[in-house]
Q: What sequence folds into this?
């Protein structure tokens, strides 16, 4: 299909580049536009009236606005994985190859079966769903809800992963100017001339704001020319950052502003290495909010018909985009500003059929303008109803000042109900806007620290005031940020008047009159809400969904409030205030996430032996942020259990090595290091001799075990603590808290050295033989020189400094060898060669886990934040001679009850049965119920040494029940077996192997 | 007026002119048998059950703003009873049962949608913990299913199964869990209570308690003194402040929790899903918005707003879990003030002041508890003894060590 000519493009004018033509598609129909167009302006230029369907009634809707406040013209932009639902056509910068599709209609936008909802509208009023669909109960999920869900929603999200990337960035400035219209440009110039570092953001792809859309004259130049000069000056200033396509969407604490930069959205797809969008966190010493104002509707019958448009939007399309939304226009305005439309239409050759101004008397100049336009003037008149179809507007019913109703044939109606200052950002920290009667609008109340409001956002709508505001507030902001400002002179611009007569709702409408277009909230819905007592603004909003749509009620909220005020006989400020929550305009979830997705969701920490382990074909597992080798499959091994059994048998029979570098390591130094350890551990450390290692457990303040591990004394004033992998950071934080907050007087310093050391556990009967081959001559590691729980400083492999700890998690003769992390890769290879003749194996976390369960060492599954030291069999470690954190709270009756589940071992009565962690213990023959619940299995493993499964668990009074049988009840996995309670130490209970 | 399809139709034919206010705009009287402080979900439910279960209808609910202005309208609408500990499971299961019959009981459609709550696990240890929890639920007669990865994929094929940093291993599903239209809960209870004679007094802020000789006499309010034989506090995030007026210092910190909703989109996510390798939970409202949340901001606050670091953290979780939502836009963020207790579990108990009762410490699990909280608080106030399913929620449990710490985080409220 060849695109049709742009039938509604004006022959001249506009800020579009007619030298280039862009092709795009809407609902499969090929069309063309020009650079400088938005999707909405291009649609209008192509004569498209119908742009979308409403949420509830599926009413046909046209383009209402020319900005981010658009409630109607929402499209699905792009296709496939890049499909973006609910995209406002008014904010989409046209690009070549753009594909857009209308949404929330079936089978087509022109003929939407769901518009039958409109016929049911007498039932589908505000809150109808709260009153029905209650019987029968099961029908809700099966029938009613699926129907409602399918009918609701708007566009369709892609079901594929978002293929684009997003970035996050920080920026800091002296003065942030939000909004690049006349006020913002002037404020930026003023601040920049004072030397301040300025960031100027605007959501549009072009600076200028209303300067682009109105026929303004500033200092004798056209508004667009003045803007170009201003932008040129700012661009030349290296201290100024200009950010187009950037919406400051939220104000947060500590003068932080969230902003979204649409980096690649104006391209078919982002260029290579270009993010689609960038999330900025801008920290500004001062901020000037110059976000302008949003024109509001008047509520009358059929005010949502395609062809009805905000007057300012119509001027944007005509002046900026050279597109004619109508050929025979009506204008309905209650203020002077709306009258600009008439002059612009005359210039553009658009026939103005009628001007309806409800004010009883209007300035003579306007009367002349109406005559010049050849328009019928209805002073004191009202538009009661607009009539039309999905194809466009046909006529309007005008109630004249004398009470007659006249029909005027039009194909478009421009409406201006006044302006609402865009004060959303002033409310994000909790302030409420305040009402100003003279402009019938809300303006900023309290503003966040450092933020001032300028220009139209303050309710000063005329250009001269805006420019003056910009000059003054830009300079003041620079001054407040420490610069000496010389306020520039205010450019000359014509003064304007607003002359607004508040008009919210026209009475006597015969057709539906909409307040919130997108959510289909009518004036009648507000009446119902009032009748049912939903009179608070928040109740009104929540009950009717007013202002809850994607436009956040930018064109609707004040009208809704005013109608409620009229119904309750209160003033608008008495009725309530509207408020705003971030974001100002919706922000893609992907932008908030940035690159933190997929594998980059969180950092990946690799152990020093990772590359070597990968070469060995290790299977890796996530252990917090770490990747650890889980097991090392050998050729021919088809399941994990075979590999793990082999590794365990090799360790217990010969020797194995495991990278344990992930365990937290904290270097603690100072004269009071021992005192600190005495206070955080339940057992004593100050008396630990130099060269010795001790197992310790620490409690939280509430008496529950926080962590355990070994701590070695390297010197009189130096210890190195090891923590569990999972709690490394938490323990560090705890120690810092203890030192900095509880006992700052202690002479102690500490630092986390987890990543500085590669640490390998070398375990098994041949561990010493292996170590012997690694260490440099002169070191004595005999049982006598380095007995169990000893530590020594050595060098290995020809001078690499290291520490050798004689400690064991596996229950075998074992050492942990620590070397600086950079030697880790070399040392693991050296260990493997040294141990080759003894049959050394590498073992992973699974074998490590099997062996610790066989030895009955509590680990993560037992240290679950609810177990006491006594529960875990560590009660005897709790020193009676000193105070320690958690000592007092651990003695609370609830924590000393002997019936508490405490640690025991478990074996299946039928040795062939598999044990499962998470099974609960019930007495034999007891009914499965909560009252018979005695505890639960925490950890299980297949013990190759015993050839059956063994488990650890917490069971009531566990230590005193060895030999008793109970049920391990596991209904979620259909498990129910008999197990015997036993000692948690399955292997070498006397510990002889450790000490050889 | 009874709500039904019939009454709706009848009113439609008469232009909806005859609907009555859902609740009367009551003016405070001099004295009530019971005054409930706080017109949120819990307070309104308490008043309703006082009237319905205990025949105590001379009740006022006093609310400083508009009813439902606190956490009942600021949550992610999830209901579930997939708890672990014996002190919690029976209570939340009772709540679940009340949700299941709520709409017909209060004649208000709160859109209780039992679409299932799926918790994902990403490690063996997490799976074991889920098995323990699922089994505990079964022992209490609660539905739970432990799912393998492939079963999860069937329910939610769009989750990141391909390049996840923390691959999904399986999940724990509670099929009866789901969502409820949050505002409707407040309005429904208000209307149902009002129909039984309860006075709902909005814009009436409690400024103090009148206590004589250790006995409550009533509440001082911005609209004058209101006498009461018994007073119940159900003020969530303001619990510490309000109880402070009665001279109490609670084991509670107030924190801000944010929640988020996206633009409305056609049905995309059919169940409630929680991420196990980050803090992120999501469901889709009947209107089409994705409703999601994550961690509290982490600092103490009474301001009903949050900051960007948490927003980013939540969205990172979302994108890690379901990369299809990258182009869906977040429409609104808001904050609620959470009464974070020292063990993550609530308090429903008497206080040292005779006739003054406390309902607090809901952390960010208060919404799902609304019906049972009201039921049990009403029971406590009416009979002066705890209801069986809430017996563990004692104020003195921190002193005795009978804490109910589901997450095992200890007395650090910002971790619960």
A:
């Amino acid at each position: 299909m060849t695109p049709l000519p742009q039938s509604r493009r004006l022959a001249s004018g506009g800020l579009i580049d007619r030298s280039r033509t862009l092709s795009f598609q809407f609902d499969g129909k090929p069309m063309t536009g020009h650079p400088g167009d938005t999707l909405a302006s291009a649609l209008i230029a192509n004569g498209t009236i119908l742009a979308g369907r409403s949420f509830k009634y599926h009413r046909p809707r046209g383009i209402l606005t020319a900005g981010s406040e658009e409630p109607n013209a929402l499209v699905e932009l792009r296709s496939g994985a890049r499909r973006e639902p609910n995209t406002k056509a008014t904010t989409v910068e046209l690009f070549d190859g753009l594909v857009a599709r209308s949404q929330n209609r079936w089978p087509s936008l022109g003929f939407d079966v769901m518009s039958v909802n409109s016929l049911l509208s007498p039932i589908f009023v505000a809150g109808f769903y709260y009153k029905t669909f209650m019987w029968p109960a099961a029908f809700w999920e099966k029938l009613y809800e699926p129907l409602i869900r399918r009918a609701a929603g708007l566009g369709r999200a892609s079901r594929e992963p978002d293929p684009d990337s997003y970035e996050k960035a920080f920026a800091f400035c002296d003065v942030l100017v939000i909004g690049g219209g006349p006020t913002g440009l002037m404020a930026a110039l003023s601040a920049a001339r004072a030397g301040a570092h300025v960031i100027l953001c605007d959501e549009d792809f072009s600076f200028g704001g209303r300067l682009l859309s109105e026929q303004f004259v500033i200092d004798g130049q056209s508004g667009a020319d003045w803007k170009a000069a201003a932008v040129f000056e700012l661009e030349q200033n290296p201290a100024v950052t200009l950010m187009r396509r950037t919406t400051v969407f939220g104000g947060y604490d500590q003068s932080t502003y969230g902003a979204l930069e649409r980096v690649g959205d104006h391209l078919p797809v982002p260029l290579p290495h270009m993010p689609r969008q960038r999330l900025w966190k801008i920290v500004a010493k001062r901020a000037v909010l110059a976000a302008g104002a949003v024109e509001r509707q008047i509520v009358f019958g059929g005010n949502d018909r395609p062809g009805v448009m905000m007057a300012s939007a119509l001027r944007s399309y005509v002046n900026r985009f050279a597109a004619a939304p109508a050929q025979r226009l009506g204008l309905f305005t209650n203020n002077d500003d709306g009258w600009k439309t008439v002059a612009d239409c005359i210039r553009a050759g658009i026939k103005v059929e009628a001007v309806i101004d409800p004010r009883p008397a209007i300035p003579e100049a306007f009367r002349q303008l109406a005559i010049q336009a050849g328009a019928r003037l209805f002073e004191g008149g009202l538009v009661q109803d607009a009539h039309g179809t999905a194809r466009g507007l046909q006529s309007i019913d005008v109630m004249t000042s004398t009470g007659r109703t006249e029909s005027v044939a039009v194909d478009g109606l421009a409406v201006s109900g006044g302006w609402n200052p865009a004060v959303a950002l002033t409310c994000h920290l909790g302030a409420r806007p305040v009402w100003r009667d003279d402009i019938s609008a809300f303006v900023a109340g309290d503003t966040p620290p450092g933020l001032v409001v300028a220009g139209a956002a303050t309710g000063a709508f005329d250009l001269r005031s805006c420019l003056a505001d910009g000059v003054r507030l830009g300079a003041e902001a620079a001054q407040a940020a420490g610069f000496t400002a010389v306020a520039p002179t205010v450019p000359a611009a014509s003064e304007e008047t607003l002359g607004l007569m508040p008009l919210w709702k026209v009475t006597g409408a015969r057709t539906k009159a909409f307040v919130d277009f997108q959510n289909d909230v009518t004036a009648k819905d507000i009446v119902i809400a009032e009748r049912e007592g939903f009179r608070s603004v928040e109740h009104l909003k929540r009950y009717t969904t007013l202002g809850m749509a994607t436009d956040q009620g930018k064109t609707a909220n004040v009208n809704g409030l005013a109608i409620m005020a009229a119904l309750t006989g209160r003033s608008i400020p008495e009725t309530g205030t509207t408020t705003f929550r971030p974001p100002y305009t919706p922000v893609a979830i992907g932008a908030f996430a940035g690159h933190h997705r997929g594998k980059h969701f969180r950092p990946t920490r690799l152990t020093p032996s990772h590359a070597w382990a990968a070469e060995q074909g290790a299977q890796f597992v996530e252990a917090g942020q770490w990747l650890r080798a889980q097991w090392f499959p050998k050729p021919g091994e088809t399941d994990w259990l075979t590999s793990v059994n082999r590794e365990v048998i090799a360790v217990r029979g010969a020797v194995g090595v495991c990278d344990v570098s992930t365990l937290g390591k904290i270097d603690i130094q100072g004269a009071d290091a021992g005192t600190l350890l005495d206070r955080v551990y339940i057992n004593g450390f100050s008396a630990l001799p130099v060269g010795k290692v001790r197992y310790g457990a620490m409690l939280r303040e509430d008496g529950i075990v926080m962590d355990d591990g070994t701590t070695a004394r390297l010197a009189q004033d130096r210890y190195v603590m090891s923590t569990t992998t999972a709690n490394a950071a938490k323990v560090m934080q705890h120690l810092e808290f203890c030192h900095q907050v509880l006992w700052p007087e202690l002479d102690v310093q500490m630092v986390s050295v987890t990543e500085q050391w590669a640490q390998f556990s070398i375990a098994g009967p041949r561990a010493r033989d292996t170590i012997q081959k690694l260490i440099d001559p002169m070191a004595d590691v005999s049982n006598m020189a380095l007995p169990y729980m000893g530590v020594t400083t050595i060098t290995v492999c020809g001078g690499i400094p290291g520490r050798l700890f004689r400690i064991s998690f596996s229950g075998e003769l074992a050492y942990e060898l620590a070397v600086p992390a950079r030697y880790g890769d070399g040392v693991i290879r050296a260990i493997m060669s040294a141990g080759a003749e003894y049959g050394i194996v590498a073992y992973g976390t699974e074998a490590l886990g099997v062996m610790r369960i066989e030895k009955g060492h509590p680990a993560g599954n037992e240290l679950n934040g609810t177990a006491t030291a006594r529960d875990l069999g560590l009660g005897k470690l709790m020193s009676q001679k000193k105070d320690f954190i958690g000592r007092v709270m651990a003695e609370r009756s609830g924590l000393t009850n002997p019936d508490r589940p405490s640690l025991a071992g478990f074996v299946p009565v039928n040795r062939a049965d598999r044990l499962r962690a998470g099974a609960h213990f019930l007495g034999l023959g007891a009914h499965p119920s909560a009252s018979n619940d005695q505890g639960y299995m925490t950890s299980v493993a297949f013990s190759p040494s015993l050839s059956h499964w063994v488990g650890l668990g917490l069971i009531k009074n566990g230590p005193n029940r060895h030999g008793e049988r109970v049920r391990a009840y596991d209904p979620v996995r259909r498990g129910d077996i008999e197990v015997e309670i036993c000692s948690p130490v399955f292997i070498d209970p006397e510990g002889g192997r450790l000490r050889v | 007026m009874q709500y039904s399809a019939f009454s709706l139709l009848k009113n439609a034919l008469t232009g909806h002119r005859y609907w009555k206010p859902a609740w009367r705009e009551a003016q405070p009287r001099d004295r009530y048998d019971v005054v409930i402080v706080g017109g949120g979900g819990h307070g309104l439910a308490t008043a309703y059950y006082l009237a319905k279960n205990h025949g105590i209808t001379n009740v006022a609910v006093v609310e400083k703003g508009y009813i439902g202005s606190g956490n009942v309208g600021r949550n992610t609408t999830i209901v579930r009873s997939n708890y672990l500990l014996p002190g919690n499971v029976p209570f939340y299961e009772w709540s679940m049962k009340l949700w299941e019959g709520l709409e017909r009981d209060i004649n208000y459609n709160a859109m209780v949608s039992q679409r299932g709550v799926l918790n994902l696990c990403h490690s063996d240890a997490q799976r074991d913990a889920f098995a323990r929890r699922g089994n505990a639920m079964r022992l209490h007669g609660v539905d739970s299913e432990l799912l393998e990865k492939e079963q999860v994929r069937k329910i939610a094929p769009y989750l990141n199964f391909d390049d996840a940093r923390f691959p999904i291993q399986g999940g724990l599903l509670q099929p009866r869990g789901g969502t409820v239209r949050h505002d409707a809960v407040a309005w429904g209870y208000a209307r149902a209570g009002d129909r039984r004679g309860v006075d709902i007094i909005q814009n009436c802020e409690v400024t103090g308690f009148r206590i004589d000789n250790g006995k409550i006499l009533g509440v001082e309010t911005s609209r004058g003194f209101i006498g009461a034989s018994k007073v119940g506090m159900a003020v969530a995030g303001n619990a510490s402040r309000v109880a402070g007026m009665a001279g109490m210092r609670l084991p509670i910190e107030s924190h801000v929790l944010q929640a988020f909703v996206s633009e409305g989109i056609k049905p995309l996510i059919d169940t409630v899903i929680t991420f196990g390798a980050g803090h992120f939970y999501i469901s889709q409202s009947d209107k089409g918005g994705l409703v999601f949340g994550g961690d509290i901001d982490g600092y103490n606050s009474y301001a009903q707003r949050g900051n960007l670091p948490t927003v980013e953290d939540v969205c990172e979780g979302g994108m890690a879990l379901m990369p299809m939502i990258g182009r869906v836009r977040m429409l609104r963020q808001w904050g609620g003030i959470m009464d974070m207790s020292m063990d993550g579990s609530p308090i429903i108990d008497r206080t040292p002041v005779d006739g003054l009762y406390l309902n607090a410490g809901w952390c960010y699990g208060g919404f799902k508890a609304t019906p049972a909280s009201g039921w049990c608080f009403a029971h406590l106030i009416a009979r002066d003894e705890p209801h069986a399913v809430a017996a563990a929620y004692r104020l003195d449990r921190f002193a005795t060590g009978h804490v109910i710490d589901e997450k095992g985080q200890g007395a650090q409220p910002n971790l619960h």
